[in-house]
Amino acid sequence: MVRKSFLSYNKTIWGPLELVEKLYPEAEEIGASVRDLPGLKTPLGRARAWLRLALMQKKMADYLRCLIIQRDLLSEFYEYHALMMEEEGAVIVGLLVGLNVIDANLCVKGEDLDSQVGVIDFSMYLKNEEDIGNKERNVQIAAILDQKNYVEELNRQLNSTVSSLHSRVDSLEKSNTKLIEELAIAKNNIIKLQEENHQLRSENKLILMKTQQHLEVTKVDVETELQTYKHSRQGLDEMYNEARRQLRDESQLRQDVENELAVQVSMKHEIELAMKLLEKDIHEKQDTLIGLRQQLEEVKAINIEMYQKLQGSEDGLKEKNEIIARLEEKTNKITAAMRQLEQSDNDLLTQTRTIAMSLVKYASSDTQDQYKLVKDISF
């Protein structure tokens, strides 16, 4: 009954078996074989054929294991309390692995798999108390039954082979008619292609003639352009040689200017060094002059003091006169030394002014005049 079935009321067992093709790619061959079988009209018949093929492949357990893992897909076909949705379903799939040891050879073609399986009569295979002593009769009956089963199985196989041959003949006739139609279409296409080929050849000849004329005109233009290019290239070569010579002269001139600049830089360093030495001498002489002025002031103070003592002491007048004479002599020497220092200071100032003027002239003169000025300053 539907209420007790583990399938949903609006689904069949063929639905979940079709999902195996998507989950297990190797099952596509079985699905295609089941769909191609003639005589199968109901989903139940397709499911029975699929189960027989899976059993002969020894992969029924693998297919069902791949299906039972996807519980979310099975929920579309089974109720939540169905056997396949419970843990017992995985146990049953595990027990199906034992079927892989059986070499099954089941008949699929020619079987009436759509109808309900009838009651199987097992009475001939059961032992009766009356037949216990008739062993030979049972053996003969078993042999006859085996031969009958073999003949029936052979007949089924021959019928399936004949039906498959009929279907193949039908398919070949259909394909033959299709090929004849395609051949007629191909002949028409060949005729059209030949006409197009003839038209294309005539157009190709016209294009070839026009191309040859165009090539002749282009050849004449190319020859004229080549002559023009040769004349222009000769002029360009002359311009290139002239520009190269000017570049060489300018490079030589630049080298000379760089050498002169290096000489001027070295001369400038020497002049700066001479200026520093002159400034140092001037500072030293100024310090000496300051010291001499201080000594002169001291001598003047001593003279004033001695003069005062000279006025107060008439007895030591002679000695003081001698002292005064010596002091005056020393004063005259100091005065002469001061004059000499002032003269040398003036000479130094004059030399400094001369050097400054020479530097101004040096900045505005050429190289030879600068060299002469440097010589004069060094002398």
Automatic annotation (TrEMBL):
Q: Which SMART domains match?
A: RUN
Domain (RUN): residue spans on this chain: 1-111
InterPro entries tied to this protein = RUFY1-3 (IPR047335), Run_dom (IPR004012), Run_dom_sf (IPR037213)
One of the record's GO cellular component terms: cytoplasm
| Entry keywords, A to Z | Coiled coil
From the UniProt record, list the coiled-coil ranges: 169-203, 240-347
Query: What Pfam family does this protein match (any one)?
Result: RUN
Could you tell me the superkingdom of the organism this chain comes from? Eukaryota
The record's listing under PANTHER family reads: RUN AND FYVE DOMAIN-CONTAINING PROTEIN 2, RUN AND FYVE DOMAIN-CONTAINING PROTEIN 2-LIKE PROTEIN
Q: What is this protein called?
A: RUN and FYVE domain containing 2
Query: What taxonomic lineage is listed for the species of origin?
Result: Eukaryota, Metazoa, Chordata, Craniata, Vertebrata
